[in-house]
């Protein structure tokens, strides 16, 4: 770790008195003694959030990006600090056009004039990691060429090492540091920032998103020109869209604003639940609106360097949490947090339920159209912190994306009722998840995993049936069909019962502690479910 960089960081932290951002309560005696001499330093004449923002900007691009990540964690930081971090700007002067051309020629093994019919010397945009130039291919397609800054990899690795040291010190010495899991947050950030250093990864992400929405009118992703793409050079189709925040142009072409806002929400839920692969950097600078079909508007997204996905378990728990919250079933929300491992297994569920109710009830007294979906989720996480909920790094990108999407939707159409769009999607996704065809597909795909976990199945089936409201309509329908007296129909629906029971067990696989409470009927129920499913 270079001494000079460490001294620079210490000097900036002292200049802006960032030590004052550490919690004053519960500081150990040794830490108070260590920080006591700092009281002699002059006090900056600015609020703490502005001090942190200015310090991060002075420390450079990696710290700016880390601050942008922290700005998506209002469940961890005070509102005034989050507000200032939202102002962080990732803008730096461009590097020279000649240097850029040299990097392109070295990567492609050919001169710029041989590859492109034209290449604009002045960049369209310049950021801390890369800059972008407009060009035209010899075949006539208009493209943009993204080129990594020279030497940026070494700078990033150096600063990442420093961030790891700082995170380790916070986790070890700061009260509540272990619960905040700063080392894991930095490690998650490392994966994110290193992904931006390999433009082939960004190209692959864009190709996957483009394939997911290839038949959809909701979202368009620019084409990647793989023949001209390397680790430090990316060539993409150039799009001609309206910036999503340019309300003047959107209104001038008579864009259907309510539908545009609703489609943004639908895109989010499709990415997270249907494809489990979502664009995690959907801030307004990366989003455009197609100029075609303004009454059926289509989004265009660029910069796919940062994407996210959830485990199947987190998908399920997140969907059920959202549904339970808006049904005001706070008991279910509390139990789901325990079952998912987001809070400790010994958390007092009754007390947790009461705390969630106290936070959510005032919010839900408002009309649904005025409720911030993302803020409800943040309030829930803030409440869970009081019950020692650890930071969940895998949910950081999701929360950031939801905040961006909802803020954008409300800017486009302030009357947006996000729940009106989200609720039917989540209900449909939950129904499809327990459909027998889906379950059979899961068995084919994850057969060995199912066999390994089969001894747990009877109890899991029993417990899931006790709790799952989603199964009730299907079971009622099955009962009506059985009453019809048609033998063939009986066995078809009995097999459907078996599929539903087996699926309920699969959804509950993460709850092995229930085996201790297993009644004999639970084993019989599980065996019967499997026989019914496999009956010829």
UniProtKB/TrEMBL annotation:
Q: Where is the ABC1 atypical kinase-like domain?
A: 88-336
EC no. given is 2.7.-.-
Q: Which sites bind ATP?
A: 124-132, 146
InterPro entries in the record: ABC1_dom, Kinase-like_dom_sf, UbiB, UbiB_bact, UbiB_kinase
Associated pathway = Cofactor biosynthesis; ubiquinone biosynthesis [regulation]
Quote the function comment for this protein: Is probably a protein kinase regulator of UbiI activity which is involved in aerobic coenzyme Q (ubiquinone) biosynthesis.
Q: What class of enzyme is it?
A: transferase
NCBIfam families given for it?
Answer: PRK04750.1, UbiB
Can you tell me where the transmembrane regions are? none
Say which species the protein is native to.
Microbulbifer echini
Q: Does Acyltransferase count among this protein's keywords?
A: no
Family indicated by similarity: Belongs to the ABC1 family. UbiB subfamily. Belongs to the protein kinase superfamily. ADCK protein kinase family.
Q: What is this protein called?
A: Probable protein kinase UbiB
Q: Which UniProt keywords apply?
A: ATP-binding, Cell inner membrane, Cell membrane, Kinase, Membrane, Nucleotide-binding, Transferase, Transmembrane, Transmembrane helix, Ubiquinone, Ubiquinone biosynthesis
Q: Where is the active site?
A: 281
Q: Where is the signal peptide?
A: none
């Amino acid at each position: 770790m270079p001494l000079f960089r460490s001294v620079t960081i210490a000097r900036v932290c002292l200049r802006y008195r960032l030590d004052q951002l550490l919690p004053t309560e519960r500081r150990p005696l040794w830490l108070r003694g260590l920080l006591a001499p700092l009281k002699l330093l002059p006090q900056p004449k600015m609020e703490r959030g502005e001090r942190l923002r200015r310090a991060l900007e002075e420390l450079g691009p990696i710290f700016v990006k880390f601050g942008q990540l922290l700005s998506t964690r209002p469940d961890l930081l005070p509102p005034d600090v989050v507000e200032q971090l939202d102002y962080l700007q990732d803008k730096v002067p461009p590097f020279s056009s000649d240097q850029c051309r040299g990097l392109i020629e070295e990567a492609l093994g050919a001169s710029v004039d041989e590859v492109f019919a034209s290449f604009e010397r002045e960049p369209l945009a310049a950021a801390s990691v890369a800059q972008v130039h407009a060009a035209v291919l010899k075949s006539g397609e208009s493209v943009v060429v993204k080129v990594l800054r020279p030497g940026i990899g070494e700078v990033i690795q150096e600063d990442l090492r420093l961030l790891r040291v700082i995170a380790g010190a916070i986790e070890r010495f700061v009260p509540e540091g272990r619960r905040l899991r700063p080392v894991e947050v930095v490690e998650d950030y490392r994966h994110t920032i290193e992904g931006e250093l390999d433009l082939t990864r960004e190209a692959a992400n864009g190709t996957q998103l483009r394939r997911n929405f290839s038949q959809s009118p909701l979202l368009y992703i620019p084409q990647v020109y793989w023949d001209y793409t390397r680790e430090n050079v990316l060539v993409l189709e150039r799009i001609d869209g309206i910036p999503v925040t340019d309300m003047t142009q959107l209104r001038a072409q008579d864009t259907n604003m309510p539908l545009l806002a609703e489609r943004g929400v639908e895109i989010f839920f499709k990415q997270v639940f249907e494809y489990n692969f979502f664009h995690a950097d959907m801030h307004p600078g990366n989003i455009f609106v197609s100029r075609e079909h303004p009454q059926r508007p289509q989004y265009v997204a660029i910069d796919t360097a940062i994407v996210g996905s959830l485990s199947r378990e987190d998908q399920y728990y997140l969907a059920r949490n959202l549904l339970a919250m808006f049904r005001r079933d706070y008991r279910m929300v509390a139990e789901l947090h325990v079952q998912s491992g987001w809070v400790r297994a010994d958390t007092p569920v009754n007390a947790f339920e009461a705390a969630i109710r106290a936070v959510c009830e005032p919010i839900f007294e408002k009309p649904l159209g005025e409720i911030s979906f993302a803020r409800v989720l943040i309030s829930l996480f803030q409440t869970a912190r009081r019950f020692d909920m650890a930071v969940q790094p895998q949910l950081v990108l999701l929360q950031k994306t939801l905040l961006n999407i909802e803020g954008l939707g409300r800017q486009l159409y302030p009357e947006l009722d996000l729940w009106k769009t989200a609720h039917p999607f989540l209900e449909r996704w939950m129904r499809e998840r327990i459909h027998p065809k889906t379950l059979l597909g899961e068995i084919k795909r994850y057969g060995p995993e199912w066999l390994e976990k089969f001894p747990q199945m009877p109890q899991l089936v029993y417990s899931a049936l006790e709790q799952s409201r989603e199964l009730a309509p299907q079971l009622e329908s099955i009962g009506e069909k059985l009453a019809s007296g048609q033998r063939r129909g009986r066995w078809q629906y009995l097999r459907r019962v078996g599929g539903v029971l087996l699926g309920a067990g699969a959804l509950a696989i993460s709850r092995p502690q229930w085996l201790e409470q297993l009644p004999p009927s639970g084993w019989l129920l599980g065996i019967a479910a499997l026989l019914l499913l496999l009956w010829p």
